[in-house]
Amino acid sequence: SIFAMSALARPLLVPRLTAVSNVVCSDEAPLDFHTTNVALLQICGGIAGSIQKCQGNPKTTTGTSGNVQFTITPVDPNATINVSKGRWEQGIKAVAAQCGQGVPFTATFDKGATTGDINVELKRI
Q1: Percentage helix, strand, coil, to 5, in the chain?
Q2: For 30-74, what is each residue's pLDDT tens digit?
Q3: Measured in Å, how far apart are the chain's first and last C-alpha atoms?
Q4: Average pLDDT, the chain
Q5: If we measure between CA atoms, which residue out of 6, 122, 4 comes closest to residue 64?
């Protein structure tokens, strides 16, 4: 049929997913949605707007807003952080699928450093 041919002719679009491992979800109540989203964009001195990647190759970085803080450190102590905004946001979504939106956690995100993976923590401060 024509429908079957047109469906097969379209390219399959598969969104990039960031693998997460070592996920430990807190039993705390979820953090404020807006405050968490602001903190999410404060890593690496700020990745809002047109910035697409962590700038400056930091050894560690935090994103803080109000009583919410993200902390990122490379698994390899000799590496620096160069996570892209897309990989960062995909990792956050992957953890939220396991823990719930805004629930404090620790996890390891695939890649995101000059060599290897990054450890991520979301906590109430």
Answers
A1: 25, 30, 40
A2: 999 999 999 999 999 999 889 999 999 999 999 999 999 999 999
A3: 59
A4: 90
A5: 122
Q: How far apart are CA 29 and CA 50, in angstroms?
A: 32
Number of H helices, E strands in the chain: 3, 5
- The tokens of 78 are what? 């000799």
Cα–Cα separations (whole angstroms), residue 101 to 11, 95, 111: 32, 8, 22
- Separation CA 120–CA 65 (nearest Å): 16
Q: Which amino acid is at 57?
A: N
Give the span between the Cα atoms of 62 and 65, in whole angstroms: 10
Q: What is the pLDDT of residue 3?
A: 46
Which tokens hold the place of 7? Answer: 């469906």
Give the integer Cα–Cα distance in Å for 41 and 48: 5
